[in-house]
Design goal:
The protein is α/β, with parallel strands linked by helices. The protein is 34% helix and 19% strand. Among the domains are: 145 residues, Rossmann fold, CATH 3.40.50.1100; 66 residues, Winged helix-like DNA-binding domain superfamily/Winged helix DNA-binding domain (Arc Repressor Mutant, subunit A).
């Protein structure tokens, strides 16, 4: 990684180098740089805030960020499960992988961040070894990692082995874009509710909003409420005592399960911990926004399988072939097809064609919305 000027958020020490945490107090580090608020509205990703981020030698993106705002039963929701690996951690992984310059990296497996980091580092052309501690295993994520060309080691990394962790300063900088995005999309809320185990995301949000305040863009920093499963907030207490404006709300496993089922009925499939943010925001009132951080569902790598196409699928392919080289929304495809077909049917046909490898997808920004677009696969 590149040498960066870093500052500790706990003891205020300033250091330089490719460090994971403060060498004096083990606190979290953030990158020190001059930031300028400027939004590139043509980019439907977190890189629309590139003037607020450290400048990498290249930009490695899978269109992470710029996720939708939803409303469910008077609760405003920021849906981070729409990120490439279905987790908010993709924001940090994108920035970190953009700075990657080694051929090989060791990654410490942590829920959400492990799969995300592996995915981005592989896309950067690096080889990866993953160290997994059995007590922190997420089966869905581990299976997704195993499907990729990585070495999985069920042990703690050797003492002198340099290992990338979730609390890396570049991860923290990438996660701050969530605060910038919430500000751009909904303005100021009284508070933001995020699920937490280590508090890293809460720290990033707090510092992100503090940066906006320092730039004169907002008049106050919203309260950051960390929702946690009952009895699992001991680490969070230390964070809340050191970072201004963070408090903790615990939720019982029973209540969290009920919230998870309520979200599932609305088509939002999230991890149990993530559901606690929705429930906590619901209890606190409509002035609080809930961040759904991750989904337990991890899509396997799509297989490029050919097969018989339905009449509608053949029409969709014909339209995309006629517009070869263009990206079209589902609505545009539907309008070009005409006839008795429904828009919903076109969406389903495009989804099926994508799974078969006949269609590729991308994103473009339409106002404050990130819209999926489609094109014919080059080998179809």
């Amino acid at each position: 990684m590149h040498t960066l000027r870093l500052g500790c958020l706990f003891c205020n020490s300033e250091v330089e180098g490719a460090l994971q945490s403060c060498p004096y107090c083990s606190g979290p580090l953030e990158v020190k740089l001059e930031r300028r608020w400027s939004v590139n509205r043509g980019l439907p990703s977190m890189w629309r805030y590139e003037t607020m981020l450290p400048r990498p030698p290249r930009r490695l993106t899978l269109n992470e960020g710029f996720t939708p705002i939803l409303r469910l039963k008077d609760v405003v929701i920021k849906n981070e499960t729409r990120n490439p690996t279905r987790t908010y951690a993709d924001r940090g992984s994108s920035l970190l992988a953009s700075f990657a310059k080694r051929e090989h990296y060791n990654v410490f497996f942590e829920p959400d961040a492990g799969l995300s980091l592996v995915t981005y580092l592989l896309r950067a052309g690096c080889s990866v070894s993953v160290y997994v501690e059995l007590e922190r295993v997420s089966i869905h994520e581990l299976l997704a990692i195993a499907a990729q060309k990585v070495s999985v080691l069920f042990s703690k990394p050797p003492s002198k082995t340099e290992v990338l962790r979730y609390d890396n300063p570049l991860m923290l900088e990438g996660l701050k874009t969530l605060a910038y995005e919430i500000y751009e999309q909904v303005g100021l809320s009284k508070g933001i509710v995020v699920p937490g185990e280590t508090g890293t995301l809460a720290i990033a949000l707090a510092r992100g909003f503090e940066t906006l305040e320092e730039l004169g863009l907002i008049s106050y920093v919203p309260e950051i409420v960390v929702s946690a499963l009952e009895g699992r907030s001991s680490v969070l207490g230390h964070v809340a005592s050191r970072i201004r404006g963070i408090r903790i709300c615990e939720v019982s496993s029973r209540d969290a399960l009920q919230a998870m089922l309520e979200l599932a009925r609305a088509g939002l499939y999230v991890r149990l911990l993530s559901a606690t943010a929705y429930l906590t925001a619901k209890r606190l009132g409509s002035d609080y926004l809930a961040v759904l951080t991750s989904s337990e569902y991890r899509e396997p790598q799509r297989l490029r399988v050919r097969g018989d196409y339905t009449p509608l699928q053949r029409l969709v392919l014909r339209v995309l072939e006629e517009r070869c080289g263009e990206w079209l929304t589902a609505y545009e495809v539907w309008k070009l097809i005409g006839g008795p077909w429904s828009l919903r049917g076109v969406y389903k046909a495009l989804s099926s064609l994508e799974r078969k490898g006949a269609v590729v997808t991308g994103y473009k920004a339409l106002g404050l919305r990130k819209t999926r677009v489609y094109a014919i696969a080059s080998s179809t």
